[in-house]
Design brief:
This protein is of the alpha+beta class. The protein has 15 helices and 9 strands. The longest helix has 20 residues.
Length: 424
């Protein structure tokens, strides 16, 4: 009987009947190989009365062998202290509240055990959004309910309550910060999707047998079709010039220029590191975008903006924080102020991204080309090098950026000097 390792677990051939492989290094720790090929880790022990108990540790793939071994050590250690982990788990399952389940889900996600898009562990930014939805919608409405008592009717009522704004509030976040929690169909749909995933986790952990969120009726989120017209682009350009003249932080002004000229997501620009900027290759080599590593072509107007700000403050970020280390943290407020100056309502960073794509469509580029410029998963350019074929994308990004730059400065087809911070 060998020490259980990842290699042994994955090399184990499924048979007609399920069988165990036990670890010689940790007695009581083993994996069961099912005919389907599924492999589940267990901890086997005897309780104080001498009865044999077998406790599920987790599914191989969601857990690696060494992670399962550590959990088995904890379980078997509890047995040595006179506890009965399987009984404790069964008792807890019966009394587990939705709030406790949410905490367990987040703890598992932080360990990389919850898969997000593309079957990769959820990113810290995604977990931040999940925590917000849990703390501001799920826990206030369902937190005290027992998980085993949740029904489809409860889930549908939850969706209706979030839609009608029952959880809408203003939350103080810092000394002077606040978060405006809103309801609506979109918020309800996205939060219900998260709650469905949390309940699926409960099924996988044996807390409940069936996910009660299946069949829940969610309203479709309103499509975000807002785009800027050439006249609105011009107002935005004037607002950026006025913001620069009146001493607005240059990080916010630069960030809005780049959002407009690249179609990047706000997180991609706000957290852009100097090492991710390849000016000679006319591209950004994003190490960790929403779709993973991604290469984005840059038009010459965007390159001109970057050149004037690279290394100005000795920070690893293009847009560094004003009074501390790290990236600039006030981009959302900067966007709001600049849009207010421009008298543009309903315009967000996503609007600038959608507008970039719309201008590209107006210029005749295909959806595949537009998707590649925006970094969509289906058309994303990934890898360490931009090959000669990708010069087509660079030319496309340049044409779109020049058009937008022309709208913003009234210099169509010509790259002119963008507003820059004067010496003060």
């Amino acid at each position: 009987m060998p020490k259980l390792t990842k290699r042994i677990v994955e090399a184990a051939e499924p048979k007609e009947k399920a069988y165990f492989i036990w670890c010689s290094d940790l007695p009581g720790f083993g994996v069961r190989v099912w005919p389907s090929g599924k492999r589940i880790y267990y901890a086997d022990y005897r309780n104080k009365s001498g009865g044999r108990k077998r406790m599920t540790i987790g599914l191989h793939g969601k857990l690696m062998t060494e992670e399962a071994r550590k959990l088995a050590v904890i379980t078997l250690g509890d047995v040595l202290r006179g506890e009965d982990p399987a009984l404790d788990r069964a008792t807890r399952r019966k009394s587990l509240t939705v709030a406790q389940l949410c905490d367990d889900y987040i703890a598992a996600a932080e360990k990389g055990l919850i898969m997000g898009k593309r079957q990769l562990p959820k990113k810290s930014s995604t977990l931040g959004v999940d925590r917000g939805r849990i703390n501001r919608h799920i826990k206030p409405l369902l937190g005290s309910k027992l998980v085993r008592d949740i029904t489809l009717a409860d889930v549908n009522k939850f969706i209706r309550d979030v839609t009608t704004g029952k959880t809408a509030t203003v939350v103080k976040t810092k000394k002077r910060g606040k978060a405006v929690v809103e309801g609506g169909a979109g918020t309800a749909a996205r939060t219900a999707g998260l709650f469905g995933g949390i309940l699926s986790y409960a099924v996988s952990e044996g807390v409940i047998a069936i996910n009660p969120a299946r069949g829940a009726k969610r309203q479709a989120d309103k499509p975000r079709n807002r785009r800027l017209t050439p006249e609105e682009y011009r107002r935005l350009g004037k607002a950026l010039q006025a913001a620069d003249d009146e001493g607005e932080p240059e990080q916010g002004i630069t960030g809005v220029w780049l959002l407009a000229l690249t179609g990047c997501r706000v997180s991609e620009i706000n957290g852009l590191r100097l090492e991710e900027i390849d000016l000679s290759g006319s591209c950004l080599r994003l190490q960790d975008s929403k779709e993973g590593a991604s290469v984005r072509p840059l038009g010459s107007p965007a390159t001109a903006v970057i050149k004037r700000h690279v290394g100005k403050r000795g920070s690893p970020y293009l847009l560094p924080a004003e009074r501390r280390e790290g990236a600039y943290g006030s981009m959302p407020r900067a966007i709001e102020r600049i849009m207010e100056r421009a008298k543009l309502t309903g315009v967000t960073a996503h609007t600038l991204r959608h507008s970039f794509a719309s201008v590209a469509g107006d210029l005749g580029f295909t959806e595949i080309t537009i998707g590649a410029m925006l970094g969509h998963a289906a058309g994303s350019v990934t890898g360490n090098y931009v090959h000669h074929l990708d010069s087509v994308l660079i030319a496309a990004a340049d044409k779109v950026a020049r058009a937008i730059h022309g709208y913003m400065t009234c210099e169509v087809g010509k790259v002119v000097q963008l507003p820059g911070r004067r010496a003060r």
